Structure formats: C-alpha cells, structure tokens
Amino acid sequence: EKENKTKKISEINTKLQKDFISVDHFYNNECSEYITNEEYADLKIAFIKSWAVKNSLTPEPDSEQAKAIGEYSGDILVKARAGSGKTRTVVNRAIFLLKHCKISPDQILILAFNRKAAKEIRDRFEKYKNEPPYIKNSPYILTFHAFAYSLVLPAEELLHNDQKEKQFKLDNVFRQFLFERLENKDFEKEIKELMLEHFKKDWIAITEGRYGKKMDEFIDYHRNLQRQTLDGKSVKSDGEKIIANFFFENGIKYYYEPNYTMHGRPYHPDFVIPVGDEEGSNRKNIVIEYFGLKGQLDYDKQSEEKRKYWEKLDKKYVFLEYSEDDKRINGIEGFKQKLKEDLEQNGVLFRKLSEDEIFKKIQDKLRLNFTKAATNFVGKCRSNFWTPEDLHTKIKEYEPLSDETEFKFLKIVHELYEKYLKYLKEENKDDFYGLIHRAIEKIKSGEIEFSYKDKFKDEFVGGNAGKLKYIFIDEFQDFSEQFCRMKQALSDKNDQAEFFCVGDDWQAINAFAGSDLKYFKEFRKYFNDSAKTLVIANNYRSHRHVVSLGNKIMEGNGEEAKDTPQLEKGGVYKA
Fold first, then answer.
1. Are the C-beta atoms of residues 371 and 178 closer than 8 Å to each other?
2. How far, in whole angstroms, is CA 36 from its chain's centroid?
3. Which residue from 78, 238, 312, 509 puts its CA 20 to 30 A from 71's CA?
4. pLDDT band for position 104 (cuts 50, 70, 90)
5. Residue 233 and residue 256 in contact, taking contact as beta carbons nearer than 8 Å
6. DSSP assignment of 302-348, as one string?
7. H helix count then E strand count, the chain
C-alpha cells in the first residue's frame, strides 16, 4: 500500500505539471483510497506556490490563496476578508489558467461592479501578462454594465448618475418630473408637507430603504445610521436631531460639537448656544449634552467628568443635560417642551418660523434629497424587475413603520415611476437597469455574441458567451437580483461555464443599490448544489489591533480575519 501511495503521489505531481485541469478527476477516481483529501490539497498548494515563485507572482501566495487559485471543479465562492489579497487572488488565478493550464483568453470573463475595480484588475493583469511565458491576449475584463452594453450595443442614450464625471442625468429627469408637478398648487402643498416630514420625522425607511428587510433587521440597521437635521447637519442620535431641529425651527443660533479642551484633550460638547446680540440680554453661553448611552459604566464616568468641567466655568456657561429618559418618559413633544422651558429660564429668545419660512430656507436641499430618494426608490423597482402594477400591489400590502408619511411618499413615487417609464419610451432613452434587462433577454434568445472597445489596444474586441469556461465575479457581496438573472441566463445557454465568485460579506454596504447578501449566504441555492466555499482570511493590510477590533465587531457573523505578524516589522502587502 505504501508503494501504491508513493506511485500515486508521483502520478499526481506529473498531472499537476502537465494536465492540471484533470488532476481532481484523476485523484477522485484513482487515488482517494491511498491519499487523504488533506494530503492531496497540500500537494496542490505546494505546487501552486512553487509555480508562482518560478513565474514571478510576488509576493508568493499564502496557503489559502494558493488553494483558491487551484480549485477548478464547479462553482466556487471565496470569502475574502479585508486585506487578504482578494484582487491578487483573482488576477493570479486567471494568470495560472492562461499560462499553466493553457486556457484560451476568450474562454475567461472577469466581471467587476465598477470601472475602478475593473481597471485595477486590468492594470495588474497587464503587468504579469508580459512576464515569461508570454501570452498575447488578455481575458475579457468588464463591469457588469459594460458586459451588458457589449451584448446589447444600444443606440439610445443611457440615463445614469456618474459621481466621478459629475453627471446626474437620472436625477435631472426626476427633478424635471418634480418641477412639473409642483406647478399644480394642490400637489405643491402635498409635496411640501412630505418634504418637511422627511426631515422632521425619522424617514430613513424611505431614503435608505427598508423594502426586503425584516423589521428587526431594519431597526438594527437604522441604529447605525447618522441622522440629518433640518439645516443639513449630521448628528449621532434621534435625541440630538430633535434638539437641533428645535433650534432651527425657533431661530436659535447654535454650534454643533464645537472645539474645546478638557484635561489637555480635544472635547466636543453636543451643542453650544453662544451669547447673542439679543437686546437687553445678559445671559450666559449655554452648553447642552445629550447623554444617549446613560447607564454604561465608562460612559457615565465620562459624563460626570463633563459635568465637573462645566461647573468650574459656571461664570460664563450654563450646563444643561438631557438623556433618552427625557424622550422616553415625556415623549418627543414633552421633551421639546422641557427644552423650551429650560432655555427660556436661561434667557434664550425664540422666534418660531412658519412652515413657509422653513421651506424657503431649505427648499433646494429638500428638493435635492427628495429627488435622490425618488431616484433610489425607482432604481430599486427597476433592479427588482417590478412594473408599476407590481409596485401598486406591494404598496397595498405594505405595513408602514409608524404613520402615513411612507404612504404619501409611495403614492407620489408610484406616479413618478409610471411617468419615468413613459418618458423612456417616448424619448427613445434607457437606463442601466433597462440595459441589464435587455442583455438578459438577448442571452435568453440565444444572441450571445458581444463586442466592445479595448482601451489598451484601441480596437474592438469580440467574443461569444457560449464559449466561456471560467467566469469570475469580483466583489460578490454586491450581487443583486438583476445580476443573478443575468448569471442564470448565461448558465442556461452555456452549461460548461464555471463561476469563481470572490467577496467579503463583512463589507456589504450597497443594499441601497439593490445588492442582497442572500446570494452570498445561500450560494449553493443560486449557483450549484455541489459548489465549494473557500476562505482567505489573512489580513496583510492592517495592524493586529485593527484586525482584533474588526473581529469583535463582527463576532458571530462568519469566519474571523487573521492578523499577519510580518506587518509588525513594517512589511507592506498590496492586497
């Protein structure tokens, strides 16, 4: 048996050198009774590391990266923690396929979610492509939208927002619809009320989107978001938002988190109402702290230090403090009444602004934010393939968080959505969501040839999706319904294509744009029952204290990141 094992190891090593793609099949059918899975995995990892060194892939991949580079049987999900060499692993796997496995470039497609990521992959690939053994052509490296464009080749103008280029065509269309509706006096009153409710009330359910989230998930998500005040400041709690809005609505000048020094360290009290030029006033400056985390030992200790600090300055300052108890016991209106009485007792003068005065002061900002909210919401409808009829049904079934504010918004945005789709049709325009929809239909109908201009070569490159064997998806945590449908259409027309998806579920921050972690968490359901999940977790970017803190924050949410001792010696690893 020992002789058989030695022989099989020798045969595996030969396969690794000469026919890497078939080595898994060979091991499973002829070697598994002599060699364990762990031993076989170690042989592959050792070979890939050795190959990487010989082929100038620096730094040498670690064992987790090497394992990911060498997996080729079926669909694969790689969970890649921050700083773990995710992009390098994607590039090195493509290099390995091309140079060692002799896979043709026109059989490899690498998909990224934005142009910056695609450019980084392309730049790194071009660097290694020119190392011996040389390869003439690169694989296809595109964003999802560029790939869709290359399939559809639309003649229409595509409406989208481009922050980098400062182009906001999609926002402009919705702003146009909004201005047209504001010419109607009844609608103007309705929209003004809604815009003000947006800022006065906790309207994050609309601007950030609760749709698709369970209530407890949304509330937990909501707690971590900053609140925006009527005058555009970002504050850290609902209590601070109530206080800031009260000041704005009553014409009270204030500073939010101004600079002070306490015990030689920077200190930023929540609010300071400075001594004004009120006629006949001899009041002091007023400092307000909102103690939102009252009851926590360290926090309460810091709160007591602040009280003592202001006691020593009582000749110039009055210190007022509030907490969640004030809001919980008295309600929001009771809390505002208490605040009003405290300020009046300390000589602060009020002038309550009318609704029209408030609107005039902030109407540009209100309209801008409403436009963004409407654009975001319609984008969700488009990315989820909802028609206006689908949206109408969902609105009837929807349970709002608190009051009628959400229904008012939904009623208005439903009308805007219908008008927007009509506008696209009449003006012969489309958007990126429609582009993806059309690409999916093209693939389903069997029209799977694509063409695009390669900026490196300054020439057009063509391909056929039916010939693809290896499809890479970068930043897989951003995967969404529309991209899943595109993937499924590709799979239906090309059953030989295998997907290599790399991402970090701890960096899923694009739910507002339609991404959904269900594709990450239920990978086998949406890809293949036999799909594999691998992990690369060594953080080569951050100090061990940062890695440890990140693990504590994300405790219980999957595999932990690992710190790398070489960073202590000043080593830098470009992930």
1. yes
2. 40
3. 509
4. very high
5. yes
6. HHHHHHHHHHTTTTTEEEEEEEHHHHHHHHHHHHHHHHHHHHHHTT-
7. 22, 22
Between CA 310 and CA 319 the distance in angstroms is 6
Query: Would you state the pLDDT for residue 211?
Result: 42
Least confident among 33-42, 123-132, 200-209 = 200-209
Query: If DSSP codes are grouped into helix, strand and coil, which group holds residue 14?
Result: helix
Share of the chain above pLDDT 70, in %: 87
Q: 563: which 2 tokens?
A: 């710190």
As given in the structure block, the two tokens for residue 229 are 């005040």
- SS3 (DSSP) at 23: helix
Helix (H) or strand (E) holding 368: helix 355-383
Report the alpha-carbon distance of residue 135 to residue 107 in Å, rounded.
14
Q: Give the closest residue to 287 by CA, choosing from 313, 317, 253.
A: 317
- Given a cut of 60, whether residue 223 has pLDDT beyond it is no
Q: Which residues pair with 536 in a beta bridge?
A: 80
SS3 437: helix
133 preceded by a cis bond (ω within 30 of 0): yes
On whether the CB atoms of residues 105 and 135 are closer than 8 A, the answer is: yes
**pTM for this entry:** 0.75
Contact 512, 527 (CB under 8 A): no
Q: Using CA atoms in the order 508, 421, 193, 329, what is the torsion angle rounded to 10 degrees? A: -30
The residues with which 485 forms a beta bridge, in sequence order, are none
Q: What is the pLDDT of residue 535?
A: 95
Mean pLDDT for 454-472 is 88
235: which strand partners? 227
Paired residues of 318 in beta bridges: 286
Q: Which is nearest to 349 in space by CA: 270, 255, 281, 272?
A: 281
In the block, tokens 């698709």 appear at 212
pLDDT at 485: 95
- Proportion of the chain above pLDDT 90, given as a percent: 48
Please give the pLDDT value at position 307: 95
Give tens-digit pLDDT for 303-328.
Answer: 999 999 999 999 999 999 999 899 88
Helix (H) or strand (E) holding 409: helix 405-426
pLDDT at 163: 61
Q: How far apart are CA 306 and CA 267, in angstroms?
A: 9
CA dist 141 and 87 (Å) reads 13
Average pLDDT of every residue of the chain: 85
Q: What is the pLDDT of residue 14?
A: 96
φ, ψ for residue 321 (rounded to 5)? Answer: -130, 145
State yes or no: pLDDT of 3 exceeds 80: yes
**Separation of alpha carbons 506 and 239, rounded Å:** 29
Q: Are 527 and 542 in contact (CB under 8 A)?
A: no
The H or E element spanning position 492 is helix 481-493
Structure tokens at 436: 């993806």
Structure tokens at 314: 């009582």
Residues 6+ apart with CB under 8 A from 369: 195, 198, 199, 207
Question: Residue 349 in 3-state DSSP?
Answer: coil
Q: Which two tokens stand for residue 278?
A: 């009120």
Q: Over the stretch 388-397, which tens digit does the pLDDT of each residue have? A: 999 888 888 7
